Amino acid sequence: MARADIGGFGRTGRIMTTHNNIPVLIVEDDEIDAEAIQRAFQKHKVECPVEVATDGLFALARLRGDSENPPFPRPCLILLDLNMPRMNGIEFLQELRNDPDLCDSIVFVLTTSDAERDKIQAYQQNVAGYLVKSRLGDGFSDLIGLLNLYCKCVEFPPPKT
Questions:
Q1: Residue ranges of the domains in the chain?
Q2: What is the pLDDT averaged over residues 140-159?
Q3: According to the 3-state scheme, what is the secondary structure of 94-123?
């Protein structure tokens, strides 16, 4: 599999594609967790374009694109950690929902936080789901099963250009 680096946006590459070939943006500052999620996609033979942004600012920049990089393909799934430097997950969600071009993004929170306050704030920003990492099975296997089923059963809007 080819891997390419994109500016300050974090690690990128092609790993295996969800049922509807939906790209995935992992917004995660913990390199070990990000790599574990990517390995889970590979292990379960779910093929999809995946990129990793190390915080909310890099993720927004990648979603919007710039003079050197086109916007991230949409529709897409965003797997969002909450506890990150510079811009945390809740701040990212607020910015995302206030952007007319990105407000309809599909976001799953993927975090270590089981705090009621975090759950409430995330759902107020219309996340598709709130997932606590410790409950996602060995090697994130339950996460991959959930995402694969979601992409198999849910109808997505046509790609945005």
A1: 7-153
A2: 87
A3: HHHHHCCCCCCCEEEEEECCCCHHHHHHHH
Strands (E), 28-135: 47-53, 77-80, 106-111, 129-132
CATH architecture of the domain covering 7-153: 3-Layer(aba) Sandwich (3.40)
Handedness of CA 68, 29, 117, 127 (dihedral sign): positive
Coil, strand or helix: which one is 5?
A: strand
CA separation for the pair 146, 92 (Å, rounded): 23
65-114 confidence digits (pLDDT tens): 988 889 999 999 999 999 999 999 999 999 999 999 999 999 999 999 99
Q: pTM of the entire structure? A: 0.85
Long-range CB pairs of 10-14 (<8 Å, 24+ gap) are: 10/34, 10/51, 10/52, 10/53, 10/54, 10/58, 11/51, 11/52, 12/50, 12/51, 12/52, 13/38, 13/50, 13/51, 14/49, 14/50
pLDDT in tens, 43-62: 888 778 889 999 999 999 99
For residues 29 and 55, give the distance between their C-alpha atoms in angstroms, rounded to a whole number.
6
Alpha carbon 35 to its chain centroid, in Å, reads: 13
